[in-house]
């Protein structure tokens, strides 16, 4: 179950980042998500080893289980540290990229950058970088010469909005940069909290395995129940 949830969290980060990849050029930020998916896959195998070793009460199996869990625990600590590092870099990365993306907007659906901007403005209910007036400085606005912004800036409840700057009350007033940064930082926090939660679960797993190992070493007369043995 833990392995499945970790893989889900990692996949969720990849899918969500795909919607905002035009605003974020540093692919290394996805490293924590990659590690989370790898750990989730490994954790499924580790779980099988742990179950078999516990049922058979194999000292060798349990010792291997504890060592692997310890390595995975260290990996998850690394994920938490990387998560915090890249979370702090999100704002600078978005600030560096977003102006270039908006200047590349041409209003056509096949264009990836244009689709990305329209998607973000509709999903996050924002317009422009800091507000709708930022569109006045874009190449697209100067070429169209109709004193309007993209229809994706229109409030969802309005059906007759044309994007005209003469009716600013029809447009989203909040800029997209702050909301994109907030969204990406929230996603990174999901990775951090998932890694912390499962690191705690793995500590519990290591503790339980150590207890079984200590019981075996202190009671040499103890025999495997599955072999028909009894307590001394």
What are the main properties of this structure?
232 residues, mainly alpha, Cd81 Antigen, Extracellular Domain, Chain: A
Sequence-ordered SSE layout with sheet pairings:
Elements: H1 2-19, H2 31-56, H3 59-103, H4 112-124, H5 139-144, H6 176-218
Helix pairs in contact: 1-2, 1-6, 2-3, 2-6, 3-6
Overview of this structure, please?
This is Tetraspanin. Belongs to the tetraspanin (TM4SF) family. Interacts with claudin-11/CLDN11 and integrins. By secondary structure, the protein is an all-alpha fold. The chain has 6 helices and no strands. It has 2 domains: 1-55; 76-231, Cd81 Antigen, Extracellular Domain, Chain: A. It has helices at 2-19, 31-56, 59-103, 112-124, 139-144, 176-218. The protein starts with a helix and ends in a 14-residue tail after the last helix. The model is unreliable at 221-232 (pLDDT under 50).
Strand fraction band? under 5%
Alpha carbon gyration radius: 26 Å
Task: Name the poorly predicted regions.
Answer: 221-232
**SSE ordering:** HHHHHH
Secondary structure: helix percent: 55-70%
- Envelope shape: rod-shaped
Largest sheet: none
Give the total of domains: 2
The number of helices is 6
InterPro entries: Tetraspanin/Peripherin, Tetraspanin_animals, Tetraspanin_CS, Tetraspanin_EC2_sf
Family: Belongs to the tetraspanin (TM4SF) family.
Subunit structure: Interacts with claudin-11/CLDN11 and integrins.
Protein name: Tetraspanin
């Amino acid at each position: 179950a833990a392995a499945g949830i970790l893989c889900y969290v990692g996949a969720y980060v990849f899918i969500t980042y795909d919607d905002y990849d035009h605003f974020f050029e540093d692919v290394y930020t996805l490293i924590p998500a990659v590690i989370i998916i790898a750990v989730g896959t490994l954790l499924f195998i580790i779980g099988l080893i742990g179950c078999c070793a516990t049922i058979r009460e194999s000292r060798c199996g349990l010792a291997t289980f504890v060592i692997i869990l310890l390595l995975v625990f260290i990996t998850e600590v690394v994920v938490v540290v990387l998560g915090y590092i890249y979370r702090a870099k999100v704002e600078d990365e978005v600030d560096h990229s977003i102006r270039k993306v908006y200047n590349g907007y041409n209003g056509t659906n096949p264009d990836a950058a244009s689709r990305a901007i329209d998607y973000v403005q509709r999903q996050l209910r924002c317009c422009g970088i800091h507000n709708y007036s930022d569109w006045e400085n874009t190449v697209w606005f100067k070429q169209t010469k109709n004193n309007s912004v993209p229809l994706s800036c229109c409030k969802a409840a309005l059906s007759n909005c044309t994007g005209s700057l003469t009716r600013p009350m029809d447009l989203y007033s909040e800029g997209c940069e702050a909301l994109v940064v907030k969204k990406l930082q929230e996603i990174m926090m999901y990775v951090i909290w998932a890694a912390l939660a499962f690191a705690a679960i793995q500590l519990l797993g290591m503790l339980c395995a150590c207890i079984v190992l200590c019981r075996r070493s202190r009671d040499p007369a103890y025999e495997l129940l599955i072999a028909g043995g009894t307590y001394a």
